[in-house]
């Protein structure tokens, strides 16, 4: 026997059962190749019914291999005579019913059976080996106790002592930790690993405790549901994803970073927790129970939660604010409510605190009349935007009122001008709040109300508004487009088209022109936001229905001027003329206008 022969080896092993009175064969395991080396703790894992017991029983020679072979110390198990095999291989099966009258020492002494001949009498040398074995498993103090009076953990240690007393070169154990508490489980696995190292034993142990297996095993044998056996160090099988593929379920998945199973948060969303010491795993675990999926790596989809622990409890910084909690369960309960809010959030957006939204809206209202949006109680004279946007009779009345105040009897002119005003109204607060506060305010047409006013932009009020943090700045333009154009202005154009025929080019030119006006107002009043406003404006003008409506030029830095491809019909009013961005302006006039605008801007600087 060479050094390489030592230990246990599976050669194309096929294991299973003959069933139906020997007429059929049930092959559970097919073509397994693996090595359990001396000095190593090999842990056999696999879901229920994959064949762990079948494999161990076949390795122990308790049932014949269907094909292939099990080799111990270079010799096929089936060719080793039973007494010789018992001196090479010890087996610890799940035994709870042990002879009632035996003491622990007598039970361990049974391990000397292969050496004592048929009398079973132990020599002094045998007795010394039994004492050594009991000592090795720290059970000397239990030696004279009846095995039936031992705890499950104590009894398992004595069974390991019995195996050691056989002085084998390999030990097989089938789920020895099954009935043990956490401490005893860890202690028993630690003991087996120590014995493997110190006595140069090949130890193969099966367990359902995957987390423990990953921590203590020198080598894992992973039985997958397809009857395949994958072997490697715990790190290899974790990194290859083999453990996750085999054990991940609907509710749980194996987290490669921490080596523990985490509950699937599913719809709570991903969270990245930063906290000191033990508090990070504690908070993560509490959160995963509440439906979150803690993500170890930096992840664009993950919510950031920074937790500090101090004498007063926990302080959690999230979403721009910090909340204090006396206990971890309080923090968890809060996270549950937050997860629910997040669940309703559109992709890429994080719900913002109502006070933060109100603060942003109030702040941006100071930019100009089109940016004003009152946050306050909505009294009876206020009507939801939904009415104006989707009830043709309400919109028609508003168009007529506009026609009256502009002194025109052309419904389409009044409709175009009213529409452009409304477009400017719905662009301004969201764009301003986004640029100034990083918050996308959603003008929910059921919550934003308007009321008739004889002059100026349509007065708007809401008793509170949903708002979002845009998590991915690259998606900001698309998100604003969706909120303002797709959800508000597209339905409004449909209603208008039902009342009066206006070319889509005119309507979307008005929307673009209103957007350019909003950008210009921001550049003028909040110059610090100017550059970002122009960039966002350009991005928006490249999206969906706004594409090809015109061009945003910047003849001088900080002077964004729009040239549209259509005309809004303003020139048809008795007092009207061509707007600065009108497609009807001839190039020479435009050049003069721009030169004047550049001079004015420079003069103002
Ligand atoms: N005596 C038997 N005759 C026929 N089939 C059997 C017999 N014992 C077990 N099996 C079958 O062999 C397969 C493997 O069973 P085995 O007990 O080896 O799996 P296991 O991985 O140890 O399961 P568990 O994790 O539930 O203990 C199962 O499908 C089982 O039904």
TrEMBL record:
Signal peptide range in chain numbering: none
Annotated ranges, domain ABC transporter: 8-250
CDD domains in UniProt: ABC_Iron-Siderophores_B12_Hemin (cd03214)
A Pfam entry, by short name: ABC_tran
Entry keywords, A to Z: ATP-binding, Nucleotide-binding, Translocase, Transport
GO function terms (MF aspect): 2 iron, 2 sulfur cluster binding; ATP binding; ATP hydrolysis activity
PANTHER family xref list: HEMIN IMPORT ATP-BINDING PROTEIN HMUV
Name the record gives this protein: Iron complex transport system ATP-binding protein
Species: Sinosporangium album
Lineage of the species this protein comes from: Bacteria, Bacillati, Actinomycetota, Actinomycetes, Streptosporangiales
């Amino acid at each position: 026997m060479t050094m390489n022969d030592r230990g246990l080896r599976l050669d194309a092993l096929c294991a299973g059962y003959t069933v139906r009175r020997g007429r059929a064969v049930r092959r559970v395991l097919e073509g397994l190749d693996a090595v359990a080396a001396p000095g190593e703790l090999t842990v056999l894992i696999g879901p229920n019914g994959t064949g762990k017991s079948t494999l161990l029983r076949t390795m122990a020679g308790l049932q014949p291999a269907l094909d292939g072979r099990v080799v111990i110390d270079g010799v096929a198990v089936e060719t080793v005579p039973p007494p010789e095999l018992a001196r090479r291989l010890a087996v610890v099966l799940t035994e709870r019913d042990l002879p009632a009258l035996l003491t622990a020492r007598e039970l361990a002494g049974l391990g000397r059976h292969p050496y004592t001949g048929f009398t079973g009498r132990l020599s002094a040398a045998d007795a010394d080996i039994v004492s050594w074995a009991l000592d090795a498993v720290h059970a000397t103090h239990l030696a004279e106790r009846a095995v039936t009076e031992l705890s499950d953990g104590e009894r398992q240690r004595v069974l390991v002592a019995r195996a050691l007393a056989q002085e084998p070169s390999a030990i097989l154990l089938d789920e020895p930790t099954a009935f043990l508490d956490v401490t005893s489980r860890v202690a028993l696995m630690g003991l087996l690993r120590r014995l493997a190292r110190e006595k140069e034993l090949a130890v193969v142990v099966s367990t359902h405790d995957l987390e423990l297996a990953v921590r203590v095993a020198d080598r894992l044998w992973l039985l997958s549901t397809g009857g395949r056996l994958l072997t490697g160090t715990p790190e290899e099988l974790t990194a290859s994803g083999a453990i996750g593929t085999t054990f991940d379920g609907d509710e749980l998945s194996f987290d490669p970073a921490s080596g523990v199973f985490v509950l699937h948060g599913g719809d709570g969303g991903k969270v990245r927790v930063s906290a000191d010491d033990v508090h990070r795993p504690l908070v993560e675990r509490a959160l995963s129970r509440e439906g979150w999926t803690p993500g170890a790596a930096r992840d664009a989809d993950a919510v950031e939660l920074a937790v500090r622990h101090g004498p007063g409890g926990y302080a959690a910084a999230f979403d721009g604010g910090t909340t204090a909690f006396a206990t971890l369960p309080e923090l968890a309960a809060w996270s549950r409510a937050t997860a629910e809010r997040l669940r309703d959030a559109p992709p890429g957006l994080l719900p913002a605190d109502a006070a933060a939204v109100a603060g942003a809206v109030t702040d941006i209202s100071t930019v100009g009349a089109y940016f004003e949006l009152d946050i306050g109680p909505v009294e009876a004279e206020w009507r939801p935007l939904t009415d104006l946007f989707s009830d043709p009779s309400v919109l028609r009345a508003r168009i007529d009122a506009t026609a009256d105040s502009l002194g025109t009897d052309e419904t389409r002119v009044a409709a175009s001008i009213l529409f452009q005003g409304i477009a400017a109204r719905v662009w301004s607060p969201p764009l301003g709040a986004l640029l100034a506060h990083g918050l996308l305010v959603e003008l929910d047409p059921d919550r934003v109300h308007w009321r008739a006013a004889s002059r100026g932009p349509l007065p708007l009020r809401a008793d509170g508004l949903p708002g979002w943090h845009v998590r991915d700045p690259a998606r900001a333009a698309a998100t604003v487009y969706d909120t303002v154009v797709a959800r508000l202005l597209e339905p409004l154009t449909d209603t208008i088209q039902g009342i009066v025929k206006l070319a889509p080019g005119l309507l979307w030119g008005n929307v673009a022109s209103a957007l350019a006006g909003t950008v210009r107002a921001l550049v003028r009043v909040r110059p610090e936001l100017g550059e970002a406003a122009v960039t966002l404006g350009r991005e928006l003008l490249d999206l969906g229905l706004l594409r090809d409506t015109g061009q945003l030029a910047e003849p001088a830095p900080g002077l964004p001027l729009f040239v549209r491809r259509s005309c809004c019909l303003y020139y048809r009013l008795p007092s009207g003329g061509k707007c600065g961005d009108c497609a009807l302006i001839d190039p020479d006039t435009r050049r003069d206008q721009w030169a004047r605008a550049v001079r004015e801007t420079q003069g103002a600087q």
